[in-house]
Every structure is written in C-alpha cells, then in structure tokens.
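Lab notebook: predicted structure, single chain.

Context: the supervisor wants predicted structures on file for every construct in the current expression panel, including those that have not yet been purified. This is the next one on the list. No modifications to the sequence; it matches the entry in the shared construct table.
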Amino acid sequence: PGGKFVLIVDEADAMFRTRDRHQVFEQALQQLLDLNPSMTVMISATSVPFMLELVHGMDSSEEDIEFFNLEPQDNYVGIEDIKILKINGKKVYLDQNELNNRSEYTSDDVTICYANEKVIALYEDALSDLQNRKGVLVLDCSCPRVYVTNNIKDKANAVQKLYRKRSIQIIVITFSGSGIAVKYPKKIVPVVESKQLGEWKSWHNSLIGTLLEDIDEKYGLHIPVFIFAYTKMCRGISFRSTKRIPTHMLMALGRGHNSSTIVQTLGRATFNGRNMQKENGFDCVRVLTTSSDYEMCVKTQNYINT
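Prediction complete. Output recorded below exactly as produced.
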C-alpha cells in the first residue's frame, strides 16, 4: 500500500541501466517504486538521464519535474574550474581512442604504456615549479587493464622510474577491484621500513583518503602523488586528503561510456577546497581529455545550473 514510506535513491542516474529492464536490480527497484511511496527523492550529480526517463514516462515536459539544485559553497571547485592543459599557450586535447594498449612513450630507457607526448606534458606541468607548489595530486584514468600486460601497475612503475631518472621522487598508487596498492620511492622511505623499498604495499582498507592522509602525515605535501585507476575513478569516490586535492587529471575513457559516466569521472577532480588550492600554489585543475568529453561535461553542468 502506498503513502507509508519515503524512497530516497542516491546515484539515481545509474539505477536504470537497460532499455528492457532485464537486470535483477532494475526489476527490484521498479517493484519498490510500484509500492507507491508517499515521496520519491532522486539524488544525483548527473541528473539529466533520469530526468529524461521521467519525462519519457509521463505526459508532460521537464518543466513539470520538481527539481532542486543545491548550490555549492564559494569554496567549491567545480567542473567549470577545470581547465584544459596548455602546451606553449595552446589548448591540447586527446583524439578519441588516442590512448590504447598500443600507445607507448619511451624516454631515458623507460617505456610507459597508455601514454604519449601529450600525457607526459600533463605530468610535466604537474611537476613543474615544485619549489613554489605543493600537494601535487595527479589522477590518471586511462588504463583499464589490471592483470594483463600493460596494466595500471606497469604504467605506475614506469612513470615512477622515469621521474626517478629525472631526479624527481613521486609516490604512485593503484586502485582497482583488487584493492589499493602504493609504492614509495626508495629515497623517502625511512630505514625502519626498509622492507618496503621499491616494493608495492597493499593498503589495509578500501578508503583512498586514509592513504593520502597517511602519506601527508609521514612525508609531507612536497612529494607528488600519482593515482592510477579506471572503474574506481568513475564514480562515488573522493580522491583527496585534508590538505591534498587534485591538481591534474588524465581522462581517456573511450567510446563505450555514457555521458553520466564521463561527467562523474571528471567530477573526481572537483572538491571543496578553493582556499587549499591557492595555499598549495595552484589556480585551477588541469585536465587532458578529448574535446567532445570536456565540452559535454561543461554543457551538462550549464544545463543543470539553468
């Protein structure tokens, strides 16, 4: 019987995934909706898909949907504050599927998978002026491989090795369904932790923020951190600590992802902390992605704002 409970659906845009509703989860949610709750609240940072779903199922327009847009605080760094990487003053974009399992960048006898000169330019921008900037946090969402050759650990290993050869020490982290792993550069690991030298260490929980807090506490904000992930970087997880927030992002998802996933992924580089961004020496988040993905994210946000 209806009218006896309130249904609140978080990440509402991801709840209905197929046209014919053949997934068990979709069917269970529909059964819950059929009980006629007194109120249904849909929550999402990417609301367009389920708004279209509502319009499709009713004899009215989007103007009839009761919609509440929660305004962020002044301290919020949103998608409109994420800027495209520039090389020599010119905006640089990836081409569609430019990064794939055949993409390689080689320098200093190190080969990095899912990389090219544009990717290295993003890394170089992050690592420039380390004397005056701190809290560098690079989010790399480009390599979908976890176990086969040219996987996220292969890429993380190679990036760390390249910059070690260039006399820059960085911490690399991977985050996948198998958990979180971190690899510290040899020069910063205390002698008492010598067993960890040059080795991957599994983090004891699935909360990336706790690892970043631990890094900041032990090693400070002056050592850059690179996080390599794919599906774990697409939705629902904040990649930040109290004082370290995203500074750069590589987003190369390919053609098989819907608009909500793309917007949600770029949203991993948004955060509350404009004051922290300035304190760390940055004025924006820099991203390298395709022009179509970037423009779609910006226009989706503009639509929601209006």
